[in-house]
Amino acid sequence: MNQSTQLVRLIEIAIMTGAAVILDIVSGMFLRMPQGGSVSIMMIPIFLISFRRGVKAGLTTGFLTGLVQIAIGNLFLQHPVQLLLDYIAAFAVIGFSGFFASAVRKAAFAKKRSALTVYVVIAVFIGSILRYAAHVVSGAVFFGSYAPKGTPVWIYSLGYNATYMVPSFIICAIVLCLLFITAPRLLETKRTD
């Protein structure tokens, strides 16, 4: 990969990181859960870069998104390990959706809407479920004291985190499907030689 292509890739990662953080801040203004989390479309830029550039770029963008949120203080902090789970790991793992990058791009460019929809939904589901798992572990370990009396902490954490992760998954899947059906050029990565 030449320097020009690498620079374009890094600029895209920086832009998508900034977009994810801004979308999370804006979403959090309207609905923020009491112990953290919100219904948010902040995953869309991370998914987009994952589909454009693959797993490595997606993981990097998610990781940087978590770091920026920590740096600007847009967080709900209980413990340093919880910080790693809820911000660094939870956002980085969204990048694993990039394993479907090739299939998503091929379906989009071939204008195969049903295949595109299936690949996008599966990829968004995988990224969302991995993020959800990080939040569930964090919730059970560090927020178990908030569970109602008699409710197992794992059940409480599964339910609490599902209240914002399920709608976030649905919204992101719909928005990305519509974006790629109407504008498949968003997935193009032209080489700059």
Automatic annotation (TrEMBL):
On whether Transmembrane helix is a keyword of this UniProt record, the answer is yes
Q: Which GO terms describe its molecular function?
A: thiamine transmembrane transporter activity
Stretches that traverse the bilayer: 7-27, 33-51, 58-77, 83-104, 116-144, 164-187
Q: Which UniProt keywords apply?
A: Membrane, Transmembrane, Transmembrane helix
- Gene3D superfamilies cross-referenced by the UniProt entry: 1.10.1760.20
- What InterPro entries does the record point to? Thia_Transptr_ThiT (IPR012651)
Q: Name one GO cellular component term.
A: plasma membrane
NCBIfam families (alphabetical): ECF_ThiT_YuaJ (TIGR02357)
- Protein's name in the database: Energy-coupled thiamine transporter ThiT
